[in-house]
Write a structure and sequence with these properties.
By secondary structure, the chain is an alpha/beta fold. 35% of the residues lie in helices and 16% in strands. Strands 4-12-11-10-7-5-6 form a 7-stranded mixed sheet, with helices on both faces. A 4-stranded mixed sheet has the order 1-2-3-15. It has a 4-stranded antiparallel sheet with strand order 13-14-17-16, covered by helices on one side. The longest helix has 19 residues.
């Protein structure tokens, strides 16, 4: 397809049709100006006018190895030559089997069974339902365990169940009449500590609060769900060392399941294949999506420990089956892309090569810390949040209507970089394939745009 014409439309016509026909997610359409992406080349996106942009948000945190990777293209094309989709409801397919095998081999502990779905929200939705049903069917049933705990400011997706365990009012408040009740514990957010304490002296007081909340409801809890190490959509909030281990210990003490939402943190984003590994934690259920196919096709997985899976086994007449699924669960094209992505991890030693990139990114970011409106820079691996504030001394936030984050991300486009903010937190989450020179450009362009908008 020519870069001058797409489906019979010129570039200018595409933008007009976009405004007329499309409704974009998380986008105020009354103020939206279309930027139509027509191609990808390595770590870059190409728009309808032929302009190139570094993909600084990895196409919403999912692209790992760059665009148009020959290995991924070939895997999808070869599978397309066989079959695009059948179903996993009572049938199977080689790519789904192989991807499940590789995922359970890579995952920590005895997370031995993969339940496929379509995206992060559905992976969490499955985990929530599995946890509830598990307590009804385990060897010593406890059907009274129907409560869930999560962190304040949590984001686990946009379906009703995943919104219920969320806690971001901007995204979730309007839907409260639809939601089931969930308890929230203070977010371990050192920059804006909900307990008003200083990290150097607090003794991990937020974990103490979490312990008390878990213990108070121990006999009723079905599960505690957490994004390990980093709360992504909350603003790249990084957890203090040891907090995740405390959550695992609290769940063990209470007899409830621990659900690790690794949708954003999985597949190398924090520097290890899965974030849980960094604190030697094995969750009972682990939710994966985004990077699972290298950013090529929608796919998700909910991994379950052997004990959890076993509670669903029995004779048909016992009705212990997990009555849940999706039409495109384990889609063959997506699973083939997932297998190819994991082969790239192995062949190119992606995880082993991340420390040098992480170090370079950290060094580059230090140059932004003294800017007058940079309040905090939070980073874990290649996940970065730069929080912009109206006043550094008081940590006073900008007014929502000022849209500072949006304006900074508009300013970086002029410099050949695509970013997407979380409010006034500028998120940097490039593909794992980013080069050292591209890391320098990513941070330099971001710093220039911050200066242009705030100074």
């Amino acid at each position: 397809m020519s870069l001058n014409q797409f489906y019979g439309h010129e570039p200018g016509e595409l933008a007009a049709l976009d405004r007329t026909c499309l409704w974009h997610p998380f986008t105020q359409m009354a103020e939206y100006e279309p930027l139509v992406i027509v191609a990808g080349e390595g770590n870059y996106l190409v728009d309808a006018a032929g302009r190139r942009y570094l993909d600084g948000c990895a196409s919403l945190w999912c692209n790992l190895h760059g665009h148009r990777r020959a290995e991924l293209d070939r895997a999808v094309a070869e599978q397309l030559g066989r079959i695009a989709h059948s179903t996993l409801l009572g049938l199977s397919s080689p790519p789904a089997v192989e991807l499940a095998r590789r995922l359970v081999d890579l995952s920590p502990g005895d997370l031995n069974h993969a339940f496929f779905s379509d995206d992060g929200s559905t992976a969490v939705e499955a985990a929530i339902k599995i946890a509830l049903q598990y307590h009804q069917q385990k060897p010593t049933p406890e059907p009274e365990r129907t409560l869930y705990l999560s962190l304040a400011n949590a984001y686990h997706g946009d379906t009703v169940g995943s919104v219920s365990v969320g806690g971001i009012d901007l995204f979730h408040a309007k839907y409260r009449p639809l939601l089931f009740q969930v308890g929230h514990v203070p977010t371990p957010w050192c920059y804006r500590c909900p307990l008003g304490l200083d990290r150097e002296k607090c003794g991990l007081a937020c974990a103490d609060e979490m312990d008390r909340a878990v213990d108070a409801q121990a006999g009723q809890l079905a599960a505690f769900i957490i994004e390990p190490l980093v709360q992504g959509a909350a603003g790249m909030i990084t957890q203090p060392e040891g907090y995740l281990r405390r959550v695992r210990a609290a769940c063990d003490r209470a007899g409830c399941l621990m659900i690790a939402d690794e949708v954003a943190t999985g597949f190398g984003r924090t520097g290890s294949m899965f974030a849980c590994e960094q604190e030697a934690v094995v969750p009972d259920l682990m939710c994966l999506a985004k990077g699972i196919t290298g950013g090529y096709l929608p796919l998700a997985a909910t991994l379950a420990r052997e004990e959890v899976y076993a509670a669903f086994l029995g004779k048909r007449a016992e009705r212990r089956t997990f009555f849940h699924g999706h039409t495109y669960t384990g889609n063959a094209l997506a699973a083939a892309a997932g297998v190819a992505s994991l082969e790239i991890f192995s062949a190119e030693r992606v995880i082993e090569n991340l420390p040098a990139k992480i170090e370079r990114l950290g060094f580059a970011l230090e140059k932004l810390r003294d800017r007058p409106h940079v309040g905090d820079i939070r980073r874990r691996g290649l996940m970065v949040g730069i929080e912009l504030v109206a006043d550094r001394a008081s940590k006073r936030e900008y007014a929502y209507a000022e849209a500072i984050g949006d304006r900074v991300c508009a300013a970086v486009r002029k410099r050949g970089l695509i970013l997407r903010p979380l409010g006034d937190v500028i998120v940097l989450m490039p593909p794992l394939s980013i080069t050292p020179e591209e890391i320098d450009f990513l941070v330099r362009a971001t710093g220039e745009a911050i200066g242009e908008v705030t100074e």
